[in-house]
Amino acid sequence: MKLLTHNILTSKCLKGVTVGYPLGIVAKEVKVNEVDFNPEFISRMIQKVDWPALCKAAENLGHTDELPPTVVDDYENNEEFLKKAHHFLMEIEVMNGDLVCPETGRKFPVTDGIPNMLANEDEV
Amino acid sequence: MSGRPEHQAPPEIFYGEDEARKYSRNTRMMEIQLTMSERAVELLCLPENQPCHLLDLGCGSGLSGETLTEQGHIWTGVDISSAMLGVAKEREVEGDLLLGDLGQGLPFRAGAFDGAISISALQWLEFFKVRYFNNYCLIFHLIDCRLCNADQRSHNPAKRLYIFFSSLYSCLSRGSRAIFQFYPENSSQVELITSQAMKAGFTGGLVVDYPNSTKAKKFFLCLMTGGQQPLPAALGVDSREDAPNHVAFSQKRDRVKQLRSGKAPKKSRDWILEKKERRRRQGKETRDDSKFTGRKRPSHVW
Question: Where in chain B is the domain with CATH 3.40.50.150?
């Protein structure tokens, strides 16, 4: 699961959850891949990405202070910033661990890179 | 039993490990999936030359997702069968995969995606006709108690569809589309699916490619979020446009091949006489030829 995907995941399908975002990450295994850098795509994604949630996710994985706390002005032309964003969004993959709902504490296991978002019948 | 797979078992059981592997190795299946995926992306009407963030609903083993990657997009796939997702992982697809039940709603933030496609998955959603439940309950009762979910799933397909469509509507960015290629069982199923989608806020409708060809006919449910828009044109409606010919002309080709091979066509009187000659040469006991050999028989009347 890439951090881009984590950034859009919520637990709001569960009963009793209002926002369910962002999900905490307890990672047991993380992989770093090399992914082609597409500045146009990253610029567009930055508009959609919840930046504080991305920083928090990076922190959960042990990369504190590697990302600027807010999106810089004129980021479309700031290649260094885009490359950093690209690295965190697209190249870091959580392989094993858990995602944690911030409201109920319910854990969604991540196995072999695939989060299990299936809810039990009594949870929906 | 009906030939439709979704009448036999819920998708995560039907697509267990063996079936998942078979599905992804069948080249004809792969070819069809590829064509349908390309058509679905075409119907998405995405801005040209722009990599988009797309959702693949019922992504299975990643056949459709590969088309998305090929066209330069970044995608996330959701499927309920862990065996199918396992095959996708083995095939090292580029998209991120999620194990989830579409009928429980999509767990995504508002406006997360620029579009969504779904190939051959929608008919599984309302799923699991109750009459099969009892058989499977006995067989699988001890093995997989998640089957109990299937019972609940059968209670309210309309609700599951609505939960799915409304969560999809919210996670799509305004102006984007969701294209579903699926195999409708009957018109009331189409009606149910379409009405729940409209209730969830979508506009759009059904596009039927090659409507006059039984084999090539394909149904695409085109849902839009940007308000009322004209539906894209279907393929093969103009009679000059032929349905893909790997399907339409196969019988004709076979007949021509037979005539050219110099042998008599199967089951004709000449063929029968030749075969009897062959048996005599092999020394097998053969009835004598007579005026009744290979006579026309009255056709069966049941």
Answer: 5-130+154-234
Instruction: Return the DSSP state at B104.
Output: G
Q: What is the pLDDT of residues B33-92, one digit of tens each?
A: 999 999 999 999 999 999 999 999 999 999 999 999 999 999 999 999 999 999 999 999
pLDDT by residue (tens digit) across A8-41?
999 999 999 999 999 999 999 999 999 999 999 9
Task: Provide the 3-class DSSP secondary structure of residue B8.
Answer: coil
Inform me whether the C-beta atom of residue B112 falls under 8 Å from chain A C-beta atoms: yes
Q: Are B120 and B47 in contact (CB under 8 A)?
A: no
CB B88 within 8 A of CB B59: yes
B109 contacts A13? CB cut-off 8 A: no
- pTM across the whole model: 0.78
> Residues of B with CB below 8 A from A38's CB?
51
Spans of all domains in chain A: 3-11+20-115
CATH number of A3-11+20-115, picked from 2.30.29.80, 2.20.25.10, 2.40.50.100, 2.30.30.280: 2.20.25.10
Do B65 and B34 meet the contact criterion of CB atoms below 8 Å apart?
Answer: no
- Stated as kind and residue range, the H or E segment containing B90 is helix B82-90
- Say yes or no: B101 contacts chain A, CB-CB below 8 A: yes
Closest Cα in chain B to A117: B100
**Beta-carbon separation of A9 and B111 below 8 A:** no
Task: Give the residue from B108, B166, B173 with the most A CB atoms within 10 Å of its CB, the best one to mutate.
Answer: B108
B53 touches chain A (CB under 8 A): yes
User: Which fold would CATH assign to domain B5-130+154-234?
Assistant: Rossmann fold (3.40.50)
Interface predicted TM-score (ipTM) of this complex, two decimals? 0.94
